[in-house]
Amino acid sequence: MDKVLIRGLSIDTVIGIYEWEKQIHQTLVIDLDMAWDNRAAAAGDDYEHALCYETVSNRLTALITEDPIELIETVAEMVARCVMDEFNVPWVKVTVMKPGAVKHAQSVGVEIERGHI
Ligand SMILES: Nc1nc2c(c(=O)[nH]1)N=C([C@H](O)[C@@H](O)CO)CN2
């Protein structure tokens, strides 16, 4: 299966369940694996057939910074839904990490897979 990948997309936003978290920005780090047939883009060296990782990254940053969110689970679902609905991606794996959220952990996070290949 071909994929287009995004690694370490860093998004500063209002995220968390506690009152103090609603007053600050924190960083989320998102990894995406998106199923995409890359053959047409490669065959014609043609951007029109490519799934543009830059466009996806910009859209997700806008989406996730629109409103405060409590759970990183919600972020993961929003990302998966957006990529599938707006970019016609049939399957996606989304990892959302919240570094520094737990004192003695380097990072914590969630991972989901949605759709079918
Ligand atoms: N499964 C989750 N657990 C927790 C979350 C979360 O989003 N998903 N969030 C918090 C707090 O916001 C935490 O990040 C503050 O340090 C706690 N547990």
From TrEMBL:
Documented EC number(s): 4.1.2.25
GO MF annotations, alphabetized: dihydroneopterin aldolase activity
Record bears the keyword Thylakoid: no
Reactions performed catalytically: 7,8-dihydroneopterin = 6-hydroxymethyl-7,8-dihydropterin + glycolaldehyde
Pathway: Cofactor biosynthesis; tetrahydrofolate biosynthesis; 2-amino-4-hydroxy-6-hydroxymethyl-7,8-dihydropteridine diphosphate from 7,8-dihydroneopterin triphosphate: step 3/4
Pfam families registered for this protein in UniProt: FolB (PF02152)
SUPFAM superfamilies for the chain: Tetrahydrobiopterin biosynthesis enzymes-like
Keywords: Folate biosynthesis, Lyase
All copies of domain Dihydroneopterin aldolase/epimerase, residue ranges: 4-114
Keyword Transmembrane found: no
Family listed: Belongs to the DHNA family.
Biological function: Catalyzes the conversion of 7,8-dihydroneopterin to 6-hydroxymethyl-7,8-dihydropterin.
Protein's name in the database: 7,8-dihydroneopterin aldolase
Organism: Shewanella corallii
